[in-house]
Amino acid sequence: MTVGTKEEPWELKTAPSSSSYTMYRDADADPPALVCQVGSTTLKYHLQAVEDLHAWLLAQGDWVSLGAADEKKPAAEGTVEAFGRSAENPVGGWYGLRNGYRGRFGMYLPPLLEALGLAELTHDARNNRMRVIAG
User: Fold this and answer.
1) Are 112 and 7 in contact, with CB atoms under 8 Å apart?
2) What is the number of domains present in the chain?
3) Nearest-CA neighbor of 59 among 86, 96, 39, 37?
4) What is the dihedral sign for C-alpha 84, 86, 89, 95?
5) How many CA atoms lie within 13 A of 131 on its CB side?
């Protein structure tokens, strides 16, 4: 496991293993960010999303659908994607920092939590779910 820096990013795959991407921490950004590189597209999320999503999963206590959706599409209620946009989450709205690219929280954050040993994911072709790792 790499350390999640720009020089040594995490190398990840989406839950269905259909796409590869990298992520790294940029603690010096304002606000501190997770930088997600998907091909030539760069997405950015609040760095605290990892801890916040983990805490939310603990509170859910069971499997939760990922529900990944683009920014302009609605997120299904009760999904990881909906949490990533909710006015009720710790940042009071979108974890995505780049306007026009704020969605897909439910696509790119869950594999990072799995790589960090904080959650487990299903790896089906569609409709994947995640839950916090007990213990």
Assistant:
1) no
2) 1
3) 86
4) positive
5) 8
- Of 98, 71, 99, nearest in space to 85 by CA: 71
**Residue 128, domain member (yes or no):** no
Q: Quick one: CA dihedral 83, 89, 90, 92, positive or negative?
A: positive
Residue with tokens 């040594």: 8
What sign does the CA torsion over 130, 61, 33, 86 have?
positive
Q: What is the mean pLDDT of the chain?
A: 95
102 in any annotated domain: yes
pTM for the full predicted model: 0.94
**Is the pLDDT confidence value at 1 over 70?**
no
Which residue carries 């920092």 as its tokens?
97
Q: How far is CA 94 from CA 3, 44, 48, 72, 132, in A?
A: 26, 11, 12, 12, 22
Residue 4 forms part of a structural domain: no
Domain with 92, as residue range(s), is 10-122
**Do the domain assignments include residue 80?**
yes
Q: Are 105 and 112 in contact (CB under 8 A)?
A: no
